[in-house]
Amino acid sequence: MADDTKVTAETRTQFGKGFARRVRAAGKIPAVIYGHGTEPQHITLPGHQTALILRKSNQVLELTIDGVESLALVKDVQKDPVLQIIEHIDLIVIRKGEKVQVEVNVHLEGESAPGTMATQDSQTVLLEVEAIHIPESVTVSIEGLEEGAVVRAADIELPAGATLITDGETVIVGVSIPEEEPADEPAEGEGAAESVSPAPDSE
């Protein structure tokens, strides 16, 4: 485990929106830990440090709470939809050696054949992995793929110890030739010489 995921948290006994606002104003984030049949534990996390950690997905925190150390997987992060400030975090207690199911980002590498376009249909795959060895992403190479090529979830090379939970037939990326947009046709009569009717004879 990396040292930058070691976090000292504080227990809290107060709840409600007003208390949560005061906590955030003090530079902390309210959170709750649950799992393994234990009672939910309400804590506060250091705001700046936690926000830096959460720049990467599926993070496992090494928590120290009242002198007791434990591991917790970040399960859900609630943010203000406008300000994007972290309002609350849900954590799940985990143990070394335990496996968890997590959504992992799919990263495309390389370029498909000239004149083709690769369309990514699935941004993530669901994997079962060891809780303390969650990959940040999995990589799919599209280098040189020709028109009609399809990469499915089962084709992804997984990290050691990982198991694919997503249906193996799920399409991750497909390669096609972009359709050419039809050339603009001139409007009826456009570009043609305008005919001028002769003026009627004066009586």
Task: Provide structural commentary.
Belongs to the bacterial ribosomal protein bL25 family. CTC subfamily. Keywords: Ribonucleoprotein, Ribosomal protein, RNA-binding, rRNA-binding. Residues 178-188 have a biased composition (Acidic residues). Pfam families: Ribosomal_L25p (PF01386), Ribosomal_TL5_C (PF14693). This is one of the proteins that binds to the 5S RNA in the ribosome where it forms part of the central protuberance. The protein has 203 residues and is mainly beta. Helix content is 8%, strand content 43%. The protein is built from 2 helices and 13 strands. Mean pLDDT is 85; it is low at 192-197.
Which labels suit this protein?
203 residues, 4-stranded mixed β-sheet, rRNA-binding, 13 strands, 6-stranded mixed barrel, mainly beta, 43% strand
Explain briefly what this protein structure is:
Belongs to the bacterial ribosomal protein bL25 family. CTC subfamily. The protein is mainly beta and about 200 residues long. Helices cover about 10% and strands about 45% of the residues.
Write the H/E string, N to C: EHEEHEEEEEEEEEE
Please identify the structural class as seen in this structure. mainly beta
Helix content: under 10%
Q: Note the beta-strand portion.
A: 35-45%
